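Protein modeling request. Please complete all fields; requests missing the sequence field cannot be processed.
Requester role: graduate student
Desired output: 3D structure, token encoding
Chains: 1
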Amino acid sequence: MPANASLEDIDYEELPASTTLGMHLIAGAAAGIMEHSVMYPIDIVKTRMQVVGSSVAYNGVVQALRSISTTEGMRTLYRGVMSVVLGAGPAHAVYFATYEHTKKILAGGQANALAAGAAGGVATVVSDALMNPFDV
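Delivered output (136 residues):
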């Protein structure tokens, strides 16, 4: 941090104003891939716990993770992750880029909670509209 910068001058929630569309796309794709890759085992457990009439009953997430990894192998927790990653990268890339572009237009470079909220709504609609056909 430069000696003349105060804590108020630093906003870790935003990339620099000079960031290109391509950088927003890459940042979004990387964030989406990382998030879905890390959370995938938890999603597997959630799905299994939601199955009605399953012959296996889990007493909680930790017990389910332990049971699945010991009886079926650790790789079971990541079976099918590539299909999720292939969808998450483009979806989050579109979301991040749309969010940042819309926020820049609405807020004019100034911090504005209303503009950020509206940009999030627009980004969600655009991302879902583009990616929904691939989810079918």
